[in-house]
Amino acid sequence: MPSFLDEIETCVPALRRYARALTRDADRADDLVQDCLERAIRKNALFRPRGPLRAWLFTILLNLHRNQARAERRQGQTTPLDGLPSEPSVPASQHGHIALAEMARAIDALPGEQREALLLVVLEDMPYADAASILGVPQGTLMSRLGRARAALRTMTGGDPQAPRLRTVK
């Protein structure tokens, strides 16, 4: 049977992927995962195996992200001058890069609760029940958030919001 730390170690890649998708910044994502792992190890006595360790870790990570987002809204954001481009930017020449950037902007524009649900189900390929547990909502609420997120993405990226969509059942 794997130890607590071994189980945590197997979850790190998925935690990093989800944190990167939430923050859209590799350094902030790594800090978020580090804070999550530190808290999990420090609070391992509180873990009660009602469900998988992975879901508990994702819950910690999501709560830390939400706390940081609230703190940033209160403080406001600053942009370092050296981070600004000195030359006007040139749009990407490949259509695929443009479409990908457009989708990333659309995902960023989603309300937080919809973005979190979409990333857990689509990026992490989590079953609806696990994602709902991590977000602390009923499964029906999760499915509603996913539906609204998908419809908003179709609208923001120029798709037909009434078009039939592929159904994913988890």
TrEMBL record:
Protein name according to UniProt: Sigma-70 family RNA polymerase sigma factor
UniProt keyword terms in alphabetical order: Sigma factor, Transcription, Transcription regulation
SUPFAM superfamilies recorded: Sigma2 domain of RNA polymerase sigma factors, Sigma3 and sigma4 domains of RNA polymerase sigma factors
Boundaries of every PhyR sigma2 domain copy: 8-61
NCBIfam families, A to Z: sigma70-ECF
Listed Pfam families: PhyR_sigma2, Sigma70_r4_2
Native source species: Paradevosia tibetensis
RNA polymerase sigma factor 70 region 4 type domain location: 102-153
GO MF term list: DNA binding; sigma factor activity
KW Transcription (keyword) present: yes
Family: Belongs to the sigma-70 factor family. ECF subfamily.
One GO BP annotation of this record: DNA-templated transcription initiation
